[in-house]
Amino acid sequence: MAIDKRFLKKLRDWEATILKSVTDHFPERETKFTTGSWIEAERVALPESGDFERYLEKSGMPGEYPFTRGVQPNMYRGRLWTMRQYAGFGTAEESNERYKYLLAQGQTGLSIAFDLPTQIGYDSDHPAAEGEVGKVGVAIDTLQDMEILFDNIPFDQVSTSMTINAPAAILLAMYIAVAEKQGIARAKLNGTLQNDILKEYIARGTYIFPPKPSLKLTTDIFEYCSREVPRFNSISISGYHIREAGATAVQEIAFTLANGIEYVKAALEAGLPLDSYADRLSFFFSAHNDLLEEVAKFRAARRIWAKLMKRKFHASHPKAMMLRFHTQTAGSTLTAQQPDNNIVRVTIQTLAAVLGGTQSLHTNSRDEALNLPTEDSVRIALRTQQIVAHESGVTQTVDPLGGSYYIENLTDKIEVEVWKYLDKIEALGGMVQAIEQGYVQKEIQSSAYRYQQEIETGRRIVVGVNKFTIAESSLVNSQPVNPQLGKIQTAKLFKIKQQRDNVRVAAALKKLRQTTKEPNMNLMPDILTAVKEYASLGEICNVLRDEFGEYHESVIL
Amino acid sequence: MTKKIRILIAKPGLDGHDRGAKYVARALKDAGYEVIYTGIRQTPEAIVRTAIQEDVDFIGLSLLSGAHNELFPKVVKLLKDQEVDDIVVFGGGIIPESDISFLKENGIQAIFTSGTPIKDIINFIQSCK
Predict the structure, then answer these.
(1) Are residues A249 and A146 in the same domain?
(2) Interface probe, candidates A119, A126, A135, A446, chain B, greatest B C-beta count within 10 A
(3) Is the same domain home to A157 and A272?
């Protein structure tokens, strides 16, 4: 095959530098990758001719600016994505059992779901926690719960993602404290903290404090992690919940990257050098049903973020320009009707994530529109990833859809639309202002309304819901949550409050309160001291509530 | 002219999933009802207070976190405690089939789960008139 010599030279140069720097340390999974008919699969297929300069500008080589084709030079030939199922329910004991089950089934990373009281900084005995304890995740009140949660889980072998935002600093402190009790140094810890408060005001709703002090907590975590827990992703800037609230693919990328810009600005204002944390920024997106648009979306997101970091913030290190992301399949696409059909939807979405170059993936369970997923459903969801990884063949080559006329065209179009939003948000004074004015929420709501109207009128077909329906009785195997959980957890908290040294707890909380009055002091060390004394999450958050105030949503309809 | 039907769409508990609640609120408004939406993270007490102040005919509760068995009946009980007997309470969200009869026994008149067309909710409201 005659490949244009400039492309060929580029390929050879890239093999000798960027690729080699990775394969020297991490050999590929196979020495030779082939298709089902034993045809050799190219590591990365390139155009045979055409506009070379334009190719470099739009696509480049994988692992190279603007990273359109992927952040690693050899992607899944080197290592498959991390299969990471978001899980957690009930007590720490029950969740610990589920994590061990998932690890035994071949899952490669943990992802902790916390219950809503934990996410909003209430202890299990708070009146607002009524009915919510242990429902959508595990209940964590003190370090003791965290010790149970990670009992017999090897901290040095798994990476742990924690979906926690407003009280992220407290859960990070607990994680460090448990690891150190197991004898693992904090510098060795791998994982991700969601720590993305801005999308909570837009879409997810687990805010506690107003934006300004919240951003102070965010940047404290950036600074602390860069110094003490350097392998931890200190934030996961999340489009997933924005998409689930009804945003389009374009809006998902635009609002997520706009939030990213706001965090970088906040860190710059706090005096953090860009290179100290920028390579630890990570992202989290949704994978929806529209397969080709989703693939184009991921490619466009990488290109735009790289440009932003390079041109707007003058990042110098390539790692600071890489958009690394976790993906979850779109829960809102799952139907309560004919729930087994959801397995097929999740398969399409898995392909979207993988063809889009994700670093890790959660696949939803077929029964999530009905109840908390059963163990069987979770296993099928994980098997879906394993089938795509090991049987579909899409992992043998990098960015398999790159160069498709349609995909490249769509990638460009999405990029144009995203820049329009980014300009608009900048004109409004940035993302905090855009959120406070309700602009972002209104944009999402109007997309959500349009989408649902299309379903109502039958313009958009949802199989089993507005077409191809059957009379059916519902799935019975639901995963029950113990209704006594609130009481069990409250009793546990009562006991630990009697056993701990309450004088030391009070002193630690007092010290934390003093530090909150010093805007230049990082709050993490005092929070760590408090959690080690078994101060509860609610007690620590109450100190911060007193000092920072609370945020109240302005209802926009 | 008869008084327009007034509906309070409310989000009890700590759940932030408000896409469905906002959709139903807007769609009912478009269908000609007067609709008030509380926003997320409301206590049952606050919901009942708003319902009485706003003199609504219906309360629609939306919850996706699994706390419906505790929080939906609590709203009904608080209404009874206040001797309000002319507000119809209905609900929606991720509600397992097995919980629906329990909720109906406890005064929630109808449950609309995921995938329900808006006309089913409108038909229900009209049937209660």
Answers:
(1) yes
(2) A135
(3) yes
Residue A3 has pLDDT above 80, yes or no: no
Q: Residue A479: which pLDDT band, with cuts at 50, 70 and 90?
A: low
ipTM of the complex: 0.93
Query: Residue for token digits 């010599």?
Result: A5
Tell me how close the Cα of A92 comes to any Cα of chain B, in angstroms. 18
| B26/A557 CB distance under 8 A | yes
Tens digit of pLDDT for each residue in B23-78?
A: 999 999 999 999 999 999 999 999 999 999 999 999 999 999 999 999 999 999 99
B71 vs A131, A136, A445: nearest CB: A131
Number of domains in chain A: 2
Quote the minimal CA–CA distance from A237 to chain B in Å: 18
As a CATH number, domain B6-127 is 3.40.50.280
A90 Ramachandran zone, left/alpha/beta (phi>0; psi -120 to 50): left
Q: A131–B16: do the CB atoms touch at under 8 Å? A: no
What is the rounded CA–CA span in Å between residue A384 and residue A393?
14
- Compute the nearest-CA separation of B60 from chain A (Å): 16
Strand order in the sheet with A109-112: A232-233, A191-193, A159-162, A109-112, A82-87, A360-362, A325-329, A281-287, A235-238
Residue A488 counted as domain residue:
no
Same domain for A153 and A231? yes
State the pTM of this model: 0.95
CB contact under 8 Å between A369 and B39, yes or no, is no
